[in-house]
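Example record used in the benchmark description.
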Amino acid sequence: MIEIVEDMKCVEKVVRIKVPYKMASRAFHHQDSVIKVGNHYIGNGSLTAIAGPCCIESREQLFAIAAAVKSAGAQILRGGAFKPRTSPYSFQGMGEEGLKLLREAGDKYGMPVCTELMSTEDFDLVDTYTDIIQIGARNMQNYSLLKKVGRTQKPVLLKRGMSATIEEFLMSAEYIMASGNPNVILCERGIRTFESYTRNTLDLAVVCAIKELSHLPIIIDPSHATGRWKMIEPISKAAVAVGCDGLMIEVHHEPDKAFSDGPQSLKPEKFARLMTNIQRVHSACEETLITESVAKIHAAI
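Model output (C-alpha cells):
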C-alpha cells in the first residue's frame, strides 16, 4: 500500500508513524507547534507565565491578584470557577459568577484568561468566557470531555493525570487533535508516588521526553507539583533550564486566608521576584544555545 502511494506523482514522501499518537507525534509534525492565545504565542521560544489564584473567591481578591501578576510580567490570567475538590464539603467555586469576574479582570488588565472545564455540560458556559480551556489532571482520560473540546479551535491546556504514563498523556492529546483541534498545550503538574513530603513528584524529565516525542508545547505547574510555596522558585528555575515553554503558578495576596491551596500560593512580591529570576535563567539558556549554534557553524566552515 505504501509503495502505491509513494508512486503517485502528487506525493513527495511517505512517513510511517509507528506510535499510537499520530497527530501529536513529532514524526507527523517536525516543527514545534506554536499556539496563539490572544496576541500571545506559546511554544515560539519565549517563556510564558500563567498566573493567578487557585480559585476565584471575590471580585476584590481576583482583581488585586490580576493587577499584581500583570505588573510582574505574567501574560495569562488563571482562576478556577469550578473546583474539583477531594472533599465534597470544600469550596467548589463560584461558577458562572466567577467566570464573569475572570473575563472582566482579563479584559481590564489586557490578559487572556484560563480556567478549568470539568464536564461536557458546562462547555458552552466556559467556552463563552475564557481564552484557554483547561482539562485538569482528574479528567485527563475523560474521553467525552476531550472529544468535546476537540470540536472547538480554542486552545486547550491538558494536564497530565496523576498516574499517567507519557504515552497515555500524549494519547489524551491525540483525542483532542483527532477531533479537530490542533491547539493543545501540555502541562506537567507532578505524578503520584510513594513520597508524601511534597504534594506530588515533579517529573522534569517529561519536558525532554515531550520535546523528543511530540511537537506540542509543554508547561510546568510547580504549585501543584510541590504543594509548598518555598519550593516554587527553585523548581521553576529547573523547569526553565530543561526547556519548558512556560509555567503555571498560583498567586494569592492573602494565602493564609485562601479558600484553597494557600500553602502552595506565592504572595505577589514573591511572584515578582520569581519572574525576574526565571527570566534570567531563560536568557542564559538562550545565550548558551546561540553560542553552541555559532560554534557548530564555524566548525562546519
